Amino acid sequence: MAGAFGNQHNEPAMMQSSPLNLRRAVIWLGRLILGPIFIYAGYSKLFLPNTHFWPYFFLKFSLATNIANFAFQVEAFKLLPPWGVQFVAHTLPPAEIALGFLLLIGWRLRVWATLLSAIMLGFFVVVTRAYLLHMNINCGCFATPEPIDLKKILEDAALSMLAVLMTYFAFVEARSPHPWTVPEPK
Fold it and tell me: Does the reported pTM lie above 0.90?
């Protein structure tokens, strides 16, 4: 008969796996790298290009100017109609901030990691298209004039790969038992 510890000799049951493995390390790295990047990307699009915050009525003007600048960068990719450009310019920066925080918190990680992977893959495709079409435009990633070149393509590819791996491993880890649970007696 098995004792309270899970075996016949009353020895403590062994953990099923280490609390840290490659999958969990990739998930943590993905959260700690991509979360702050997305927070900063959204913040920079909303606040950095034009930072007239005093007096407070300039804040609205400043945000409107920054969103208009970002809309100009989105329009330069020549992918969306005017209403789509305005939609992306108004929704992407706050969505990036929220997604970055949700990624750092880790709440419902599979949902937010999937959304982040889709966004990163979309960024990668759009930037690669612009590069292959020899479009002389700025990326618009961090609201700074950053031309699209091979370095930017590789950077987006690496971040997209990290996002996809993090999402895949989050789904795999959700199916496995927690590493500190004691196995059920047979």
Answer: no
